[in-house]
Design brief:
Keywords: DNA recombination, DNA-binding, Transposition. This protein is α/β, with parallel strands linked by helices and about 240 residues long. Helices cover about 50% and strands about 15% of the residues. It has 2 domains: about 90 residues, no CATH class; about 120 residues, 2-Layer Sandwich (Nucleotidyltransferase, domain 5), CATH 3.30.420. The protein has 9 helices and 5 strands; from the N terminus they run αααβββαβαβαααα. The N and C termini lie close together (about 10 Å).
């Protein structure tokens, strides 16, 4: 293992491959900082969990932003859903939008579950995606219909609990992380974590059940190549 010449890692004690691997492990899998520390220790790499946290904030954000810019145009069918989070003893709502293939389009943590909150999510989605969807699928929460009438009046809106499993299932990684971290400490922490986690998860969302073994392994190899290019270093062997 040798230090990568990428100037992004200049001045760091640890090789770029170690930093890249720590960030990948923490944001892609439901692991605590201490778990990542132990997994690196098993490879003979001694690093503190606090260092892993700092790497995640510095490098994870850069990697996520680059992946988001490079991401292909997503599907024109949006699934929207919201889930309750208990943060600091208060009820918060995580609003999320995914496309028909389960790729996360955006997320927003808010204290409300009304039309104003739904409108904020739709406006953020339109700004980031740059185009309206063909179809918007939600549950029967009336806030979605009210927000859509004002922001996307021409878009078809389907409201049915059974049609929105795609969005509901997308909350599962957040729930696993919430349990691992013994609840989130603040809305800002959730928003920051998900803003890094979701682009990385999208890169490795390979839809294994829709591919042959050979196609899956090819797609996985391509995802690792993209990671190495964006992160500036390959994963540690």
């Amino acid at each position: 293992m040798s230090t990568h010449p990428n100037p992004r890692f200049a001045g760091y004690r640890y090789p770029a491959e170690v930093i890249s691997t720590a960030v990948w492990l923490y944001f892609l899998f439901p692991l605590s900082l201490r778990m990542v520390e132990e997994m690196l220790a098993a490879r003979g790499i001694t690093v503190s969990y606090e260092m892993v946290r700092q790497w995640g904030l510095k490098f994870g954000r850069d990697i996520a932003n680059t992946l988001r810019r490079r991401a292909p145009r997503r599907g024109d069918k949006w699934h929207l859903d919201e889930v309750v989070l208990a943060i600091g003893g208060k009820r918060q709502y995580l609003w999320r939008a995914v496309d028909k293939d389960g790729f996360v389009l955006d997320e927003l943590v808010q204290s409300r579950r009304d039309a104003k909150a739904a409108k904020r999510l739709l406006r953020k989605l339109l700004k980031r995606q740059g185009v309206e969807p063909r179809v918007m699928v939600t549950d029967k929460l009336k806030s979605y219909a009210a927000a859509k009438r004002e922001t996307m009046p021409g878009v078809e809106h389907r409201q049915h609990k059974g049609l929105n499993n795609r969005a509901e299932n997308s909350h599962q990684p957040t729930r696993r992380r919430e349990r691992q971290m013994k609840r989130f400490k603040s809305a800002r922490q959730v928003q920051l974590f998900l803003s890094i986690h979701d682009p990385i998860a999208n890169l490795f969302n390979l839809r294994r059940d829709h591919r042959s073994v050979a196609d899956y392994r090819t797609a996985r190899a391509q995802a690792f190549e993209t990671w190495a290019e964006v992160a500036g270093a390959r994963l540690a062997a």
